[in-house]
Write a structure and sequence with these properties.
Shape: elongated
Strand order of the largest sheet: 2-1-5-4-3-6
Number of helices: 10
Strand content: 5-15%
Distance between the termini: 18 Å
Length: about 300
């Protein structure tokens, strides 16, 4: 069972997010906790190096050192010692990967997004670990926390901090998790977009002309009108799926391809075999491009 739900690395002086785990939790409690983490990240310079904001179900832990701070959202039932063991290892790995100069010069959020891979590996390892598996580090952190306890905050106070940060720091960056980024558009992908737009335009033009005739004289041709408009919509959605990330992309892609094939077969007679083959071929090429263009961020990898 996961006990660490989210982790990020921020720059202490301004709260700029440098990297974060790519997680997909959408329950209201987690989203509220993430907003409070954002508020806290902008004023970390005001606090000691270790701190904990306890909530009923979720807690925020942070560990800062020099220019960077590591933050995590964990289950409130998760051991505080284990949480700081996790943050210390994350901080050590980030400091070993990037120098102070590059951290100081970072001007955009998630400048070190590739560090997400390491965050995921460490997070997965700690989610599956217990106290006995990291006895040495556990004892070390336990002693440190005994002599220098983390500052205790309340999650409810984070909302007030959020208002103070937004009112008093105009340059604060409020992003907490990265948006979806797709791989670069390829030349073949651009070709598929152009062909898809062309097919969509042809379907729209033929559908409009046929609709004018059908509504005036041939009411039985409504089915043909629909068979032109559906592929037009399918072409539009195929372009969207190629350019932007969407959940259940594979299922949507196959539904759109099936719709184009079915409608073009239905239109046999109004279109010859070569025209039908062309439209189905373009739809197939677009479907292939959609399925092969993936997210830049990798999914969690538990192999260490």
């Amino acid at each position: 069972m996961s006990m660490i739900f989210f982790a990020c690395v921020v720059r202490v002086r301004d709260g700029l997010p440098l990297s974060a785990s790519t997680d997909f939790h959408f329950n209201q409690g987690f989203l509220e906790c993430r907003k409070r983490l954002k508020a806290l990240s902008s004023i970390l310079a005001q606090y000691p190096s270790r701190g904990t904001a306890k909530g009923r179900d979720l807690s925020i832990h942070f560990l800062s050192s020099g220019d960077i701070a590591c933050m995590a959202i964990c289950s409130s039932a998760y051991s505080t010692v284990m949480a700081f063991c996790f943050l210390e290892e994350l901080q050590w790995k980030f400091a070993a990967s990037y120098d102070i100069t590059s951290i100081g010069l970072a001007s955009r959020p998630y400048a070190f997004l590739e560090f997400d891979n390491i965050i995921q590996k460490v997070k997965c390892r700690f989610n599956g670990a217990n106290r006995s598996q990291m006895k040495d580090n556990w004892e070390k952190i336990k002693e440190e926390l005994k002599f220098q306890p983390p500052v205790q905050l309340k999650l409810e106070d984070m909302e007030l901090m959020n208002g103070m940060a937004n009112g008093g720091h105009a340059g604060v960056h409020v992003e907490v998790v990265p948006t979806y980024r797709m791989q670069r558009v390829t030349p073949l992908g651009i070709l598929s977009l152009v062909l898809n737009i062309m097919c969509g335009a042809l379907n729209l033009i033929r559908g409009v002309h046929l609709a004018e005739y059908s509504f005036q004289e041939d009411h039985e041709g409504i089915g043909n009108v629909i068979a032109f408009f559906l592929p037009f919509l399918a072409c539009v959605f195929q372009c969207y799926l190629y350019l932007f990330y969407s959940s259940a992309r594979k299922m949507k892609t196959f539904v759109l391809l099936f719709s184009v094939c079915l409608c073009n077969i239905y239109l046999y007679g109004l279109r010859n075999l070569w025209q039908i083959a062309f439209h189905i071929g373009v739809a197939s090429l677009s479907s292939y491009q959609i399925l092969t263009r993936q997210l830049v961020e990798k999914q969690p990898d538990c192999g260490v």
